[in-house]
Write the structure tokens for this entry.
Amino acid sequence: MKQKEPKAKVKDVKPKDVKAAQRQQKSRKTQMFVFAAAFLLLAFVAGAVVYKNQKSNESAQAYQRNKSTFVREHSPTFGNPAAKVEIVEFLDPACETCKEFYPLIKKMMAANPDRIRLYVRYAPFHNGSDYVVKILEAAKMQGKFWETLDAVFAAQASWAPRHQPDPQLVWNHVGGLGLDIARLRQDMNASEIDKNIQQDLADAKALDVKMTPEFFVNGKPLPSFGYDQLKDLVLEALDSAYK
């Protein structure tokens, strides 16, 4: 008779071994997920940096080709007309940060005499700020723009506390500047001033200005917001222009 072959023994798998294997498999999946997420994050960050640099370069090139979106004929300007570094600032007279940056920019210009020129553009995003811009524009007609801007910023806490402007209070702070107030009140309602404000707002939109202050240095926007970033961009432009 043919002898029966002995049955192969099946190794018993203990429950704890199964659980260990499951844990290892889950751990491997988690690691793969983490690596994939990290790779995607790095790719996204790298892409964002490249995109931002590209947009910055495109903005600078557009500035060199045609400055009209950045600077208009009516834009108040301060500094040497022959300066090779130009700062374009979109500001809101009720903006606290605009007030804080204002003396810093003047100090930067004083440290680099005749090399920096500042252009002011209006972005009156606060409710009622457009009224104050009209006062500034009317003061410009009397050759008193910068004196009036100084006074408006100096008294900002009085007429625009906690980002809540009461533009009528500005009149309390512009009386000692040598302005013809009666003429100022009349000039500020000129249709040309309304046109200038609307033009600045349209240019702000075209340049993707969403908050104030917003700066462009020879057409380049700040890589991120902050005074150090502005200073670095200005120094870079100075080094490039005055080698």
